[in-house]
Amino acid sequence: MQGLMMQQPLVVASLLTHAERHHGEQLIVSRRVEGDVHRYTYRQLAKRARRMANALATLGVQPGERVGTLAWNGYRHMELYFAVSGSGSVLHTLNPRLHVDQLAYIIEHAQDRVVFFDMTFLPLIESVAPLVRSPKVYVAMTDRANMPQESSLADRLLCYEDLINLHDDAFDWPLVDENSACSLCYTSGTTGNPKGVLYSHRSTVLHTYAAALPDAMNCCASDAILPVVPMFHVNAWGLPYIACMVGAKLVFPGPALDGKSLYELIEEEQVTMSAGVPTVWQGLLAHVDALGATFSSMRRTVIGGAACSTAMTEAFQNCHRVDVLHAWGMTELSPIGTICSFKGFQRSLPMPQQLEIQAKQGRSLYGIDMKVVGPQGEELPWDGKSAGDLMVRGHWVAQQYFASDDASPLRDGWFPTGDIATIDGYGFMQITDRSKDVIKSGGEWISSSAIENVAYLHPGVSTAVCIAARHPKWDERPLLLVVKKPDSKLAGDELLAYFDGRVARWWKPDAVVFVDSVPIGATGKVLKNQLRERFGSYYLTV
Ligand code: ADP
Predict the structure, then answer these.
(1) Residue 445 is a catalytic residue
(2) Residue 276 within any structural domain of the chain
(3) Residue 367: is its pLDDT beyond 90?
(4) Measured in angstroms, how far is the CA atom of residue 305 from the centroid of ligand 1?
(5) Global pTM?
(6) What is the CATH number of the domain that holds 457?
(7) Which residues form the AMP-binding enzyme C-terminal domain (predicted)?
(8) Fewest CB atoms within 10 A around its CB: which of 2, 16, 143, 322?
(9) Would you say the CB of residue 305 lies under 6 angstroms from ligand 1?
(10) Cross-strand pairs, 414
(11) Residue 227 structural domain
(12) Which residue of 187, 235, 330 sits with most ligand 1 atoms within 8 Å of its CB, as the best mutation to test the pocket?
């Protein structure tokens, strides 16, 4: 057919090839677990990624098989992003903040063939390894000099730099199907176990295009981008891919995410844009305020994962001239759905009105459609007032969970987000509540059902309900409401101590409130929204 365009598949490796050929000199700077700072270029990244791709082939990793990573944001993690996905395998980023039992469940469910880990997580991976059968080898992401003298992983433990040194950088990225899987990320199940979201090459590249646009994250070759959001948290919101696409300098913070470390890195590397959850920015702002300092290069920051308060937006914009881009997304959305950037006429509005707009989660990127629906599934008007279930569909929205027997979560082709929202006449969406039964503390999920299950193991508990209560530092923290057995003398501290070792430390509820009963709805389910109304401010008042 005349005039038809070339068929070039949208694959992750093409992002790296582009960066190598067109931005080969651009820098990637990483603060390492070892404490020092590492610098190299995209050209070197690409070479080492190809060496690692050869190493993966030697290790017997087959196309489509999963490779786990348990790592901070750094250049070796970046190499794996491309070595694994580029060679047709699936990069499975693991969240080190999870409890060993959950990590074991996720590794086994994903059938990870190899797990790469930063040395920080050696004790964690040594606790997980006896619980899982799938990984054949574990790779410590360090050099020979920093390898542990002894490890229970014994001869299954390999050294990352040895693998790099042993392999050649001649490797042709295979022509993979753009609809095949490139990466996998688990999200907290609202009931039961965590669920895997499998991203395709195509969905990832399309998300990269859209998220880099001026009205989205607004990234370009003269940017120095600091992804504070972890690479195990929905691919650092796509920034590793975006940086390759636009040729931006990348600055990786490693494990040091406190205000002082971040501020020093931002200034030393002249970072122009960053992204992360509100909790991290609180620490940064507190540090900068205490110093009486400001930012010399930072121009904007993307804030999402939890609502960004107007106070935070004001602090960044008015005190530091750093624009805030409030964003909303989900693991199931790769993750970005909306970003709050002004339309033309809004740029000249008075500041209070602008701040009101910026409290909203923003408008859809091209590639994502959204609507809010009422109880019968009817679409509600875009009037900024009618709140309903937020539904989305688009190029980078999951239609089914990975290796799941459950029915597709879609309803009439739309993905129900579990968020309650309004949409205004200009298309700006605002989250007003959440219908899903999870707690989001410092941007990370806590499963309320997992907390309730532990509480029910205690002989003094008759009914246990865990809700998200608002918290000044962490946005939300779990609050446990308990009806005691009639003859029980159970005390709050005793029940809280019962969680030690049974869940990750930060999953333990901050408080227990004993109640006489909990409200039950017509279908026999606890009416958590009523409990949230009654107890949701608990941590703001104690
Ligand atoms: P991420 O934290 O990367 O956005 P998750 O899948 O961990 O992805 O969490 C998604 C959920 O987090 C959303 O469904 C919503 O409940 C909440 N969330 C994300 N961004 C925001 C935001 N800007 N404001 C309020 N809630 C948000």
Answers:
(1) yes
(2) no
(3) yes
(4) 4
(5) 0.94
(6) 3.30.300.30
(7) 451-525
(8) 2
(9) yes
(10) 411
(11) 13-255
(12) 330
